Amino acid sequence: MTYHPKSDFMRVMMERGFLADCTDYQGLDEALIQGVVPGYIGFDATAKSLHVGSLIQIMMLRWLQKTGHQPITLMGGGTTKVGDPSFRSDERPLLTPEQIADNIDGIKQVFAKYLDYDRAETPALMLNNAEWLDQLNYLDFLRDIGRHFSINRMLSFESVKSRLDREQSLSFLEFNYMILQAYDFLELNRRYGCLVQFGGSDQWGNIVNGIDLTRRVLDHQIFGLTTPLLTTSDGKKMGKSADGAVWLNADMRSPYEFWQFWRNTTDADVGRFLKLYTELPVEDCDRLGALQGSEINEAKIVLANEVTTLCHGAEAAAAAEATSREVFEHGGTGDDLPTLELSAGELSEGISIVQVLVRAGLAKSGKEAKRLISENGARLDDEPLTDAGMMLDAGALSQPLKLSAGKKRHALVKLAD
């Protein structure tokens, strides 16, 4: 649609490619002009970190605060006990309260880098929906909240319909999730004046439910705004790489590996990712994204540096770039490369190069490591690795060895002190 926003926040959303849908463009735009708008995103605590797939949402909250409004990060301490069934083919594994609390602690570390919880005006709020969900009385909840939901309508939502169409089980526990998420929006509006919920476009049905429930119970107008579900230009889901999820916590994905993920962005995605994941002016993003040939590689380094600086700090970004240049341009090893340390005991009878490739994270299994070697995709100190039966002993590691899988993934192997 063509809508010309008046508020800074909506202008940023539209110019930088954050916007998929909005329940009422003009209504939300006017609310943003009239005063401070609190807006929230809910994050279930299913792991100790969020990954790159959530970064578009986090950047959206960052822009909300930068344009003078109040971001709310809602931890799903309550809803994680149920699990969001949206577009899943199976039921989520249930976590213990201790696991959920541990995961929330890890996720909070990510938000502290992107949002300011201590500023005098419009400080970000960190909330946990267990605060109200854990206290619910089931019969009261059914009578006061459940009566506003139509099963016929809930069955029509794509996230539920796709599961039923495939004749995959959808438990009553999971079916309740969308009611609980709608109730979150109602409670945030009642307690904190929250006016808008953000989410990926797969959350549209859940967001609309919350808006409808709040209108019915409180007679308040609130809004929903969704981002596109991002895939890379080659069709891969954003946030995944050859060796698994790209986590935002440094203890789960090193700053160097994080930097390298962005450096390896496909040419066609550079301009779009600069707009979404950095704060560079839009015209700079367009200029860098339009570069051709070898010049686009410098744009990718800008992207990697900007995103890594936001997530891990400028020092980590500079160290990652220095390591990358040493490894790729000068044939060095680089101190920041992922490192596998092997003890003298492990090497007493030798260890196969196949096992080392797996343990260094360059292959997921022995079978994959052997295939990598047979297809000339593995290198040892920049020389082709051709013998899958090769064994390493302590003598071979008198100096650290550099192992490579393809052109872009490297690790150091050295003797433990």
From TrEMBL:
This is Tyrosine--tRNA ligase. InterPro entries: aa-tRNA-synth_Ic (IPR002305), Rossmann-like_a/b/a_fold (IPR014729), S4_RNA-bd (IPR002942), S4_RNA-bd_sf (IPR036986), Tyr-tRNA-ligase (IPR002307), Tyr-tRNA-ligase_bac-type (IPR024088), Tyr-tRNA-ligase_bac_1 (IPR024107). It is found in: Cytoplasm. It catalyses: tRNA(Tyr) + L-tyrosine + ATP = L-tyrosyl-tRNA(Tyr) + AMP + diphosphate + H(+). It is an enzyme of class 6 (ligase). The keyword S-adenosyl-L-methionine does not apply. Belongs to the class-I aminoacyl-tRNA synthetase family. TyrS type 1 subfamily. The keyword Nucleotide-binding applies. It comes from the Bacteria. Keywords: Aminoacyl-tRNA synthetase, ATP-binding, Cytoplasm, Ligase, Nucleotide-binding, Protein biosynthesis, RNA-binding. Residues 354-395 form the RNA-binding S4 domain. Homodimer. It comes from Puniceibacterium sediminis. Pfam families: S4, tRNA-synt_1b. SUPFAM superfamilies: Alpha-L RNA-binding motif (SSF55174), Nucleotidylyl transferase (SSF52374). One of its GO terms (cellular component) is cytosol. CDD domains: TyrRS_core (cd00805).
